[in-house]
Amino acid sequence: MSRRNRRRRRARAVLLPVPLTGIIVLSATLALTYLWMDHSCSALGQQIKTLEQRASALRNEWVRERNKWAAMRTPANLEQALLRQGLVMRMAHPGQVVHVSETVSPQTPYVARSQWARVDTVRDP
Amino acid sequence: MQKWVTIRIWMAAVFLGSLLMMQAGWLAHLQLGDHSRIDRHWAAQLEAPRGGIYDRRGKDYPLAVSLPGELIFIDPATVSPEHDKVSIACRVAETLNLDTDQVLVALNRKDTRYIELGVTIDTEIANRLRGSDVSGVHLVDRTVRHYPLGRKMSHVLGFVNAENIGSAGVEQRFHSLLQGTAGFLEGKVDARRHEIYRERNRYVPPIPGADVMLTLDLNVQYILEQALDDGIDAFSATGGWAIVQRVRTGEILAMAARPDFDPNHYRFVSQDLWRNRAIADVFEPGSTMKALVVAAALNEGLATPETMIECGTGVWMYAGRPLRDHVRGKASVTEIIQRSSNVGAAKLALELGNQRFEAYLRAFGFGSRLGIDLPGEENGILAPARRWATISPTRLAIGQGIAATGLQMLSLYSTLANDGIMMRPYAIKQVRSPCGEILHQGQPEMIGRPIRPEVARQMREMLSKVTEPGGTATRAAIAHYRVAGKTGTAQIPIAGGYSQTEYWASFVGFLPSEHPEITILVVIERPQPQRTGGVVAAPVFARIGESVAHYLELLPSATIARSLADANRERLAGREGRP
């Protein structure tokens, strides 16, 4: 009696046929995969958008800082900064500048031969 | 009982299954269905960053840049009832440096929901206005064209108007290259109108505008503007203009005109101030024109620097009209230049004859544009010789009856300094696209050679005497450099004649005169009480010339003379040593 009941219960427990179950499981898997991929794409898209905004903000910040730096280096600002520090600076007087001609040929020494000799003497006692 | 339980289980399963199926169907519909009726489409034009303008040394020295900023406006309808309008007005006025009453009136307005207060590039200002206790004040992202130098170089740079169109100066001349090409973005948005990135179906990135590099140097410009401002202040003048040019190439190193304006606030000044007077205004040059007459006479072989000319007794009557002169008796052509004799110059002009005189004037670029790469250049006024009156050549010789731009006068002296070679003036060194492609390259260009090199050398020598003792412009002399130039003092024309109280005082010259490197023009308008070029404009010239010569490290005249002497000695030694 009890064996027959068990068999009946087992027979009743199989509610869906195997192929249908397979199809349902496959569909569910596909749907879940689709949802997962969809979610991943959205998350990546969101991440890209955030990074785009961050890049734009950084670019803006860079432009602002570069402008501030350039403004600080204008002649007027430099002059004011020097005044604040109590520094007086003037351009070099033409008489204070030594001009070395670029057209001097390699054979023409800039330093007199006697000076070369002295240098040699120091190096080689 | 068992059967009833089974039935209930099946009913529940069917019910839940149906529910799930409906939800699945709805999800599939949402995901895959046609939702064309719901407008999720979104498209936006992406603004291209406008290219920058830089000085001759490149991108480290910006003169005009586009910065991310914020537009500030008031929407009176959004002022929170919890906030006190007076305190909001005080805070906004203090932050933006506005009048408190004006802001309060704006906050109380009922007829509009948009009152613009201005734009700012300062993030601190923007943050202060974003505070939770400031309602009704809104900020919107906006790209702002910014000119870090303020008023400096304003006429050369120009400005960009509210529609983002370059409207003066370099901004106008190179607008098409500076503006870039806008990008495009097309896609879909979610229910909150946020872009769905994976639904982005078209993205054309914007192409930034090209960068413009000028031939102007920030430091030379600073020197020039400081000296010009001081000169104008010292003589209570109404305006003035000045230019520095490199002799050999024609490059403009600095250019300024007064009165000026701040391109960051161009809307708040009269349109007259936008004009670059150094190239767009004409004036009667006065005695600075005498150099042309003498150069033409030398070039035609009608005179030499030593030729003596009778200048009369102070008043010379010609065609029934008197011409006054402070040089009396006989004077050499060199003295005519050195002491600025009106009669001497007039007699040389008569010697030339109208046709030849006009030909020289036109050959030196008078009466037509020189073709500088800045907008607004004027032709000047020069009537054809066939329409000249009998006295015209005598007046043209002293710079009356002709109108020239400052640039034309500068070009005349640059030509004399450059062995008679006339170069086209240019202010743009390069225009470069963001990918490094050169779209425009400013290059030295010869546009004429009106006189022979030896005549130019003679002129340089004669013009050097002007700044030496006995000349009219000893105040233009600079220590260590020999300066050549000429003063000009011209009455300003008024209806029916010339003003007796208003003058243009000018000085044009170059240095070092042995081997000229730079030409400088200074014009001061309506100086008081002194009004001669030698007193008013020559000191400004000297101050600019000295500082610029030091800055550019020009060789002092003594060094040049020594080098020239050495070169001559070597040449002679070489000749003697040759078999």
What does this structure look like?
- The complex is a heterodimer of chains A (125) and B (579).
- Chain A has 125 residues and is mostly helical.
- In chain A, 70% of the residues lie in helices and 0% in strands.
- Chain A has helices at residues 2-13, 18-72, 75-84, 113-123.
- The longest helix of chain A has 55 residues, at 18-72.
- The radius of gyration of chain A is 44 Å and the shape is rod-shaped.
- With 579 residues, chain B is α+β, with helices and mostly antiparallel strands.
- In chain B, 34% of the residues lie in helices and 24% in strands.
- The longest helix of chain B has 31 residues, at 2-32.
- The N and C termini of chain B lie far apart (141 Å).
- The model of chain B has no long low-confidence stretch (mean pLDDT 90).
- Chains A and B meet through helix 2 of A and strand 3, strand 7, helix 8 and helix 17 of B.
Short description:
The complex is a heterodimer of chains A (125) and B (579). Helices cover 70% and strands 0% of the residues of chain A.
Short key terms for the protein model shown above:
heterodimer; A: 125 residues; mainly alpha; 4 helices; 70% helix; rod-shaped; B: 579 residues; alpha+beta; seven-stranded mixed beta sheet; 18 helices; 24 strands; 24% strand
